[in-house]
Amino acid sequence: LYGRVTAQIVAAIEAGAGEYRMPWNPRLCGGTSVRIPHNPIGQYGYRGVNILTLWAAQQANAHPSAEWATYRQWATAGAQVRASEKGTMTIFFKRLDATEGRDANDQEDGAHHRRGHFVARAAYVFNAAQVDGYKSRPMPPLPEIERNTAADHLITASGAVIHHGGPRACYIPSRDEIHLPPPGSFRDAEGYYTVALHELTHWTGHESRCARDLRNRFGNEAYAAEELIAELGAAFLCAELGISPEPRCDHAQYIENWLKVLRNDKRAIFTAASRASDAASYLRALTEVESEGKAA
Prior knowledge:
Elements: H1 2-16, E1 38-39, E2 44-45, H2 48-61, E3 68-70, H3 71-76, E4 80-81, E5 88-97, E6 102-107, E7 117-127, E8 131-132, H4 149-158, E9 161-164, E10 170-172, E11 177-180, H5 189-203, H6 215-218, H7 222-241, H8 251-264, H9 268-295
Parallel strand pairs: 9-11
Antiparallel strand pairs: 1-2, 3-7, 4-8, 5-6, 5-7, 10-11
Helix pairs in contact: 1-2, 1-8, 2-9, 4-9, 5-7, 7-8, 7-9
């Protein structure tokens, strides 16, 4: 099961490695903007590795919608999956209650849980473009941005020390600070925010925050794994904030390392996606705390 999902994502990365930063570029998604996949029937968003799987499927099939649900869920909404359509596999974790010998809560987030005994299960979902009898809810168009207010708020609320100036973009763990080129040196605002969110995802890995030490998990591949997490975290945040991901000049160098990690470790993408979701959630929580403080 892990191998099949990993193979899908590796194939998607390979298909776009020569041109795009990751395979989930909005220009490859049927001309639409990248959005976090969500289930309109169950009223929840997908998490972790399922975001990546559904983004890849949206790209491959040029689906204009980010709405996904199972065959049965579409039926309850009065819609019918067309006979020729094929589902996309997602992962949920079923907790087994060892004391009572029965199944407990199902988890649809593709993340690893430490409590109890969880068993991976597959669920096949279909995009809204694959069904008849359902009218997709219109997605608001992304604004033509110069400054993205929501992104600025998230960056400021983090409290991260950010220095602008110089030709490099990096996070320096020993100083716990981020360095970015001047905003005016970027080709457009989208490029600036994408790079800033990449480095801010690195920033969440500090021991005082998400404490993301990957050395025990990935050994010599820890650096490549951290870069993958930062790219995924930035991609998740860009989708939520309405920012189109921007290709990075060092993408080709990183992509080779990412593929090595994914090929050698079939569970790597699950760990990376889960950690990236945790980083994005951490930053969103800081934004909410800052907003509540102002309201008080």
